[in-house]
Amino acid sequence: MNEEMRKYFSPPDLKAAKKRGKEEISVLEFDTIPPEMKNIGVGKKYLIRTFGCQMNVHDSETMAGILEQMGYEATEKDEEAAVILINTCAIRENAEDKVYGEVGRLKALKTEKPEVVLGMCGCMSQEESVVNRILTKHQHVDLIFGTHNIHRLPHLLFEALMGKEMVVEVWSKEGDIVENLPKVREDGLKAWVNIMYGCDKFCTYCIVPYTRGKERSRRPEDVLAEVRELARKGYQEITLLGQNVNAYGKDFTDREYLFADLMDDVRQIGIPRVRFTTSHPRDFDDHLIDVLAHKGNLVEHIHLPAQSGNSDILKIMARKYTREQYNDLVHRIKRKIPDAVLTTDIIVGYPGETEEQFQDTLSLMEEVEYDTAYTFIYSPREGTPAARMKDDVPMEVKKERLQRLNRLQESISRRKNEELRGQEVEVLVEGESKKNPDVLSGRTRTNKLVNFRGPKHLIGQFVQVRIDEPKTWTLSGTLVGETQIGQVGG
Ligand code: SAH
Ligand code: SF4
Ligand code: F3S
Questions:
Q1: Which of 10, 59, 271, 308 could staple 313 via S-S, CB 3.0–4.6 A?
Q2: Cβ neighbours for 217, distance < 8 A, ≥ 6 positions apart
Q3: CATH code that applies to domain 177-418
Q4: CATH class of 27-169
């Protein structure tokens, strides 16, 4: 790597990253597209392939917005696209393998049509080793940019179109907050809304604090204006997004305004359903529980990643809570919101995890009774502290633990869904079922998928469905009637 490029990178480095200071983050407005770039996409198409979490899904909506302002139109077909962007995820090794598979697959297309611009962005681009590998082994890639400079896409694409060299621009330090970015939302009913960027938690296994930079919150007035605009456009549901939404506002130096305050304000906007993800148990305070207990448009579903049920493992994960503190939080939530549905993320096979420690995770799962859980085998990420920990748990054992965990969760999910038999639930109808176009499908307030028969004009509306046939992962029922969702607040 040459000097010019080196200034854009720093490999994951805990010491350096932890030293990141409180220097101010400025809020910038997205510039209009410069005239020489404005029409370069007219008559051409783009395709964005997205891997990873909701953050990436929403970043892809922003990139789509920028590309459409440049005149490009969307396509789903590789062969029609003049620009292909791969938005990547670095969370586990298998996520990265999928991306390399995709980059390799597109080589044939690039050989046949060298004029197509192939770009790579997202979390993997923030890793030095990945950029090196692309530079040496995948020279058919034309453009690499990271998570902090998405707003630079018009300029970068322009450079890639004009030059022959691979264009690489990755900022190792997070950028400012950019407001007013154009967006093409994938869905007309449900929308993602960023409330903050980055993560300062530094769980020892996790790459995100390095790929997404330090925590920085959008100003409440910008978030609330976006939510009001979505309500005005007829969106029925929003999900507030951040890696650690409970840390919202902690970085403000000019005001005292935290996540609970934001939820309290969003509660008064006339949008029927409001979700949020992801909440870190450590910063989940009673004020937030009180605000959520008002319900209304704040749904009774909380995703509360536990990661492990054993306090020693939680300690080396640097989660900064014990099993007892986690359980106490769960009890406080259930006391104020008795019908709260809790879901979680769990990692098995952490370096050195014993059978006994794993059993603590099983027993936590039993105690909390999650409705669903996303479960993962620990995957070492270069540059994180856990990657240097001694790991004497054989892969066979990790796999077997994952299976046992999944079997337990399956039985709990089944049991929880069974409790809904005969009950009426409110469903936001999203569309035809994937398997059968005669069947409609939608979601409950608690985000459970419900299938039922009904006329197509109900798509986009709220209905009442009686659950007749609960299954492990979905519910089937009978349409009972349409719901009138009253306007909430102002
Ligand atoms: N900010 C969210 C998590 C984002 S990553 C939170 O803290 O809850 C989503 C999930 O991926 C994590 O909750 C964790 O369970 C899992 N994960 C993260 N890093 C991992 C790794 N190195 N190996 C396996 N799973 C991992
Ligand atoms: Fe990763 Fe922990 Fe931050 Fe979640 S809170 S993104 S797991 S470092
Ligand atoms: Fe993956 Fe980046 Fe999200 S690593 S999980 S896409 S923040």
A1: 308
A2: 195, 196, 247, 248, 249, 250, 251, 252
A3: 3.80.30.20
A4: alpha beta
